[in-house]
Amino acid sequence: MTEVWEQLVFYLNFDVTQRALIAGVLITLCSSLLGVTLVLKRFSLIGDGLSHVAFGAMSVATAMDLADKSILTLPVTILCAIALLCMGRNRRIKGDAAIAMISVGALSLGYLVLNVFPSSSNVAGDACGTLFGSAAILTLTNEEVIFSAIISAIVVALFILFYNKIFAITFDEDFSKSCGTKVGMMNLIVAVLIATVIVLAMKLVGSLLISALVIFPSISAMRLASSFKKVTVLSCAISVFCTLAGILISILASTPVGSTIVAVDIASFAICFAIGKILGK
Length: 281
Hints:
- It is found in: Cell membrane; Membrane.
- This protein has 13 helices and no strands.
- It is mostly helical.
- It has a single domain, classed as ABC transporter involved in vitamin B12 uptake, BtuC, CATH 1.10.3470.10.
């Protein structure tokens, strides 16, 4: 145990580890804030669909050899979030069908672009790294951490600013509309925020595992708390803890960062579920 602690302290002295922990905490904090609303509104699959869109946009940015791939990935993912919101209201194309169309289409086109315009000789490795996460989170620059901090601060500020309205549309859109709330605008803000968080989280867990950051902390918190505010706060705490633990375990055990974080999230849900059963919640 002493050797593990000494090894952990050794790695924590490196700037790359500190930057990874800071960025990881910021990203998961934002995803857990929005996750509660998405789970309660049964919009969880939107996060999964947009993560596939982000993969497709990232593939195009890679083929274009862009230095900062988020320049293309972020606006494309936001536009698709808006498109999903509009298509979900279309009576001819139901919400789940719209998500399936966009997500599967973006995923297949992204992999096609990677093969037609390869950026390296290991196309399968590049795709796997983007889909399931890579060691990129451990090689973040100061500029990337600052960018993550700015975006995260904006997401948290908007969530706090519109907290009452987000709370209202989460449970009853019709009543919110009758009270004068612009439901369409609020849904649009939530969609744009989740698209932004997904683009940030791609380096942390990969595009296929992003939904885990949104869903698991939220449903874990729901096993223990009953009010919206308590669930949101507890979800943030669980998410931050799981991310810190996952990153540190992955460094010590030399395991994939994204998969390790999700594994810790799963273990956390199992524990919360058991505690909830014992407490009768």
